[in-house]
Amino acid sequence: MSTPGGGRAAGPAAARAVLWDALRRGDEQAARGIALAALEDGMPAEDVLLDLVAAVQRTVGAEWAANRMTVAQEHAATAINDHVVSAVAAHPAAAGTAGRGRIAVACIDGEWHALPARLLAEVLRLRGWHVDYLGSQVPVPHLVEHLHHTGPDAVALSSSLPVRLPTAHLTVTACQAAGVPVLAGGAAFGADGRFARLLGADAWAPDARTAADLLAQGPPRPRPPGAHPPVDDLPAAARREYVRLVPDSPRLVREALDGLQERFPAVRDHGDRRLQQTAEDLARTVEFLAAAVYTDDGAVFTGFAEWLADVLAARGAPAGFVPAALDLLGARLTGLPRAAALLRAARGALGARRTAPGRPA
Amino acid sequence: MAGRSFEARPARTGDGRILWWLSDDTARRRAVEALERAEAELERSETALERARADLGDQRERTAFLARTSEALATVLNAERCTELIARLAADHLADGAVVIAATGGRDHRVAHAAGRDAGHGRADGDPRQVPGLSEALSGFPPGPSRRVDSAALPCWAVPPGFAGPAGEALITPLPGHGLCSGALILLRSADRAPLTEDDEVLVRLFAARAGAALAAARAYAEQAAVSATLMREMLPPRLRPVRGVDFAGGYRAGRRTERVGGDFYDVHPGNAAGGETLAVLGDVCGKGLEAAVLTGKIRTTLQALLPMAGDHARVLRLLNGVLLDGPDTSFATLVLASVVRRGRRAHLRLTSAGHPPPLVVRADGTVQETRTRGTLVGVLDEIETESAEVELAPGETCLLFSDGITEARGGPLGGAMFGVERLAAALRACAGMPAEAVVEHVQMLAAQWVGEHPHDDMAVVAVTSPPLASGACAPQRPQDGGVP
């Protein structure tokens, strides 16, 4: 049932290009047609999901990160991709086998990027697991309730943004307390999975295929009672600073915003929207700072600061905007030496970068 | 001289004679003896102390094990996981292998087993009566202590697959529950290890008390959860799907994090007649949490019953108003009705608000308009007045129904600010040409990020979208494709 809008593309790379094009045009029918055509041409359903849909979704993410796609456009493309996944999953060629155990797949609460978890759920279903896909925005109590209710062999937790790591810690702990081992995945846990280990996840996988391979060897063994994750060994000061920093965010943002307007009067000239955007960027900065304090990992924050500098440069922010924002935030922190040190380190990394941080407004 | 002792010592005098000194050393001798006795006593006390220390260590270890047991079991409320954990704890600390048989009241018995690193669960592949004493342990009657049996008498399913025999004696212990027996525990020790002592048996009994209580709690939780899930099913917001060439998508976030439902609600009812109108409803009742959710259930049922009159929104709302006024509780609600039908490439909407924020429309060019409908809320006044509005949606255009939980959400980067209609409209400007789900998700995400960790009211949104042309939903979909599940 190849559709007129779809057309057949030779090879995964060509199919990816056509699918990416369909997503950009918002052409859902074409997108569905491309995936179904690939399926009918003999591409295994798992490959259609991972080498086609997931690969193109990564492009969507990269385009958003590079400020070439708005959040709304990213949502529109993701919604279409989600429909593509549904179409593939409903196709007879993607009928799952049965016979393995049961796995719950969920996003960390506050995580809106649900597609990676959805893809993992479908891949596990194809590989014979009974999968409960809980989606994004699952409050921890609901997740735990589900685990009590169904008693799965493992729960796969997905998160893409490191700012969710404190919530991820809470979630991992709650799942393990319910006696269910945790498999962590997604960019938030670090390219090498170091945050999965830090939070005491029972297993970590860099992508859906690896996760499925790992689970195929048998679900991870639950932690022995009483065992505690490495994050509990971090200095108590880190946690103290985290709990002080989070509620202080509105004040820090307000004061830093005032300071930025003084130093860069142009911020005001662009009207309320730009001011609002800057306030949101500052709030996000404090969120990343808090996550870096919580995990005692400077790279989390420096990486974010560098990314923000690039994005703001692309948006035409004045040179030195991000370093100035970091200075202003740093000057307003009181009694938070660890956070202050992280800010200084990020400031230093930005200063050391060869590339110009942006063009003057 | 009775009781006394003397010491005789010779000494040579100056003239060559021997002089014998005779001295009474009774006191000294007694002192030495006393010292010897004291030393022996000390040695005995030291041995006793060492034994006491070892005992204390044992006791501490046992207490710690029981504490760990309680801690680990306290949070596991799934019966299967719970039996597995009991088996693992028992196999790791009390024996070399353990099997837990859950008492189900029926004939079918779930079994969890553990030995070494191997653990799992399955079904008892045989009659519990095959194991001497197991039936009594499982029925909890007559109540009694553990029973020792010859492990050779155990059937296959009562020995953990990971247990590397040969086994010595096996111990069968009931797991007491709340009035009923929760199950039974079979402990196996390798034949080459010392059999369980009486002290060990005491520990097993203490462990069994904790394990049994945990298993009973898990079972009670499952029963409660099943009851509330059944009751809740009707109250959960429905999953929306396209109906006859018009896309519908809904999103819901309860104000209380522990709950799934609250005072907001939405429904989409595909009309009965082919080509007829579909009625979408979104509303908000007074109150919060479960109580409010019960009231939404009442309103949703009433509206469903009034569907045949959906051609006349004012009449539907008047009747609903009457039902609420006549009801036993003082309850009121605001809501929006949207009757939707596809005409050619466009979706035609008839909207009526009853005290509810008017829906917003996103045009294909990104313009956002507030629909011009207003009316009285229902459940307060005897007479209500409403003013309907008609809206046409070209392909790619969306009409968004939302509750004030979205617009009145407080938070933002500076804290304490309201999300507001303006910000919602600004968010919608980016949503022209987007699929209905994407619009809903976009709005939900922005509102959720706006409130962050702050408390908020229930939030509900429904997007009614005329499908973008490219998505090719031109052919009207079959009626059975749409509507509530």
UniProtKB/TrEMBL annotation, chain A:
The keyword Acyltransferase does not apply. SUPFAM superfamilies: Cobalamin (vitamin B12)-binding domain. Residues 100-226 form the B12-binding domain. Keywords: Cobalt, Metal-binding. GO terms for biological process: homocysteine metabolic process; tetrahydrofolate metabolic process. Residues 214-233 are annotated as: Disordered. It comes from the Bacteria. It holds the Pfam family B12-binding. The keyword Metal-binding applies. GO terms for molecular function: cobalamin binding; metal ion binding; methionine synthase activity. Residues 219-228 have a biased composition (Pro residues). GO terms for cellular component: cytosol. InterPro entries: Cbl-bd_cap (IPR003759), Cobalamin-bd (IPR006158), Cobalamin-bd_sf (IPR036724), Met_Synthase/Corrinoid (IPR050554), Meth_synthase_dom (IPR036594). This is Cobalamin-binding protein. It comes from Streptomyces sulfonofaciens. The lineage of its organism: Bacteria, Bacillati, Actinomycetota, Actinomycetes, Kitasatosporales.
